[in-house]
Amino acid sequence: MSRIGKNPVPIPSEVSIEISRNEVKVKGPKGELSQKFHKLVEIKKDGETLVVVPQNESKEARSLWGLSRTLIANMIEGVMNGFSKKLIITGVGYKSALKGKDLELQLGFSHPIEVKAPMGIEFEVDPKKNTIVVRGIDKQLVGETAANIRKWRKPEPYKGKGIAYEGEYIPRKAGKSAAGGAGAA
To answer: Is 43:24 a contact under the CB 8 Å cutoff?
Structure first.
């Protein structure tokens, strides 16, 4: 039995939900999201809550049960409050700037990198703190966009240069020692 799946999802008063077959549409103050779900789970509106029920007791249906419930909860949270990921840029000469709605990164390459903002995503740049904030109502799209930005320069363990998530731990390694060692004569 899924501990997550059996919990009902509360529906705030500002959010309206439409369920047709296995497609759920959620409208709220920040926007609208829709998602299709697998036929092995049934989604029912029960007053001011949403309940996800597996169609049978197969392993696949039970695994989709908790996933479906979490996706619906994330959709409701997204249209109510939205999601954001903060990226911190560390390194000499590394910087970011907004170019319209798109992002321009200077990361030590011979050319600037332009990151186009996907539909529903907006960037916020603080040049003094050298941070980028990725905002949107779709949690998956926010995380994917932040990961694609981070992919250009992952933080390296020797000097710590690169793009890291806020609060991410970067293990530091010691560099080569200057004198001594096996090859010294």
So the answer is: yes
Q: Which fold has domain 83-165?
A: Outer Surface Protein A; domain 3 (3.90.930)
pLDDT under 50: residue ranges of the chain: none
Q: How far is CA 44 from CA 18, 24, 50, 70, in A?
A: 10, 10, 6, 15
Going 91 to 97 to 102 to 105, the CA torsion angle's sign is negative
Q: What is the pLDDT of residue 49?
A: 92
8 A C-beta contact, residue 32 and residue 26: yes
Domain with CATH 3.90.930.12 in the chain: 9-80, 83-165
pLDDT for residue 6: 85
Give the type of residue at 84.
S
Residue 46 confidence (pLDDT)? 86
CATH class of 9-80: alpha beta
